[in-house]
Design goal:
Elements: H1 4-16, E1 21-25, E2 33-36, E3 44-48, E4 51-52, E5 66-70, H2 73-88, E6 94-105, H3 109-115, E7 120-124, E8 128-132, E9 135-140, E10 143-146, E11 149-154, H4 160-166, H5 168-186, E12 190-204, E13 209-220, H6 229-236, E14 244-245, H7 247-258, E15 268-272, E16 277-281, E17 285-289, E18 292-301, H8 307-316
Antiparallel strand pairs: 1-2, 1-15, 3-4, 3-7, 5-6, 6-14, 6-18, 7-8, 8-17, 9-10, 9-16, 10-13, 11-13, 12-13, 15-16, 17-18
Helix pairs in contact: 1-6, 2-7
């Protein structure tokens, strides 16, 4: 396995030569996978806007069985209280706390990949499947864009749109993430601005319909950005929306409180086509752990968070998006 410095150097070189490539980077950046876009890959399938290697479906599978067994509220609450202690101590003011949920279904990971509907879909053979609604960064015509997603609500609740957009906790959490992402983009770009603030997108799932809240942030990259793609990507990792703020200290707290390995969950996946780049955050994610399927999910915790509501949000995100 290549070291981080070697991966960065490789990405920089391919960017400089305008060689199209695919990249898959885990949460800690310890087991990255990169390869040329035109190099056949049997172990990974993907579908993102404009690119896919999934092939034609012979027969579409059907989701018949879906049983989710999350961690108990008591266990969740233990971690939640630890996070709140750190918040009250001033160590962090926003932390994305995640936990595993055991899944029983009639489908394989590859079949879930086939039937799920999302802007970004990735399947790593016998490892995981991800159907992500959240872009990480896009690079188009020398500009970099980020679309942090914070805020989820059951769309069938009466006045759900108004509730999520006026909720003081959700507003504060979203403000924090937007500020964090603005600062992150400022490390690699100039003229960073929030183009669109707290807009809604709709997701239909096998469990319920959801509204999710995002913002759009952009900045201008230097003309030679392509030859520094590796440095740009790793300067922004891990994604602010699935870590928290301040990032460094918050990551230390995540390690102490979650008590499990995220792996590729909350890492990133993307494609550079030789000129532009598109990528996503690996959320809405199911992992194979020795034959047991584990769905990993969570949400942002602030000083205004309530354990019961945060636990409910973790459960709401355990779904497969199907049309």
């Amino acid at each position: 396995m290549k070291k981080k410095a070697e991966i960065i150097s490789q990405l920089n070189e391919w960017g400089k030569q305008k060689i199209p490539f695919v990249f898959l980077i885990d949460f800690h950046g310890k087991i990255p996978l990169i390869f040329p876009l035109d190099e056949p890959q049997k172990q990974i399938l993907w579908k993102i806007p404009g690119f896919s290697n999934e092939g034609e479906l012979q027969q579409k599978a059907e989701l018949k069985t879906w049983k989710a067994t999350p961690v108990s509220f008591e266990k969740f609450n233990t971690g939640f209280n630890q996070v709140m202690w750190h918040i009250q101590n001033g160590d962090t003011y926003l932390l994305n706390f995640t936990q595993p949920t055991r899944i029983e279904t009639n489908l394989s990971l590859e079949e879930i990949f086939q039937i799920s509907s999302a802007p970004y879909k990735i399947y790593l053979k016998d490892k995981f499947v991800c159907f992500s609604p959240e872009p990480f960064v896009k690079i188009e015509n020398g500009k970099i864009y980020s679309f942090p997603m914070k805020g989820t609500i059951d769309a069938d609740i009466e006045n759900a749109e108004q509730i999520i957009l006026t909720d003081s906790k959700e507003i504060a959490e979203h403000n924090t993430i937007v500020d964090l992402i603005r600062n992150d983009l400022s490390l690699v770009a100039e003229n960073v601005v929030v183009e669109k603030f707290r807009y809604l997108s709709h997701i239909q799932t096998n469990q319920k319909n959801l509204w999710q809240v995002s913002s759009k942030i952009s900045g201008d990259l230097p003309k030679n950005f392509a030859e520094n793609l590796g440095d740009i990507l790793f300067a922004l990792l891990p994604a602010g929306s699935i870590s928290g703020a301040p990032k460094k200290k918050t990551l230390e707290i995540i390690e102490k409180t979650e008590n499990y390995e995220r792996g590729y969950y909350t890492g990133i996946f993307g494609i550079f086509d030789g000129n532009n780049l598109d990528s996503c955050v690996l959320i809405r994610y199911i992992e194979n752990q020795n034959g047991q399927l584990i769905y990993k999910s969570g949400g942002g915790i602030t000083f205004m968070s309530e354990a019961g509501k945060e636990y409910d949000e973790l459960l709401e995100k355990v779904y497969v998006p199907i049309i």
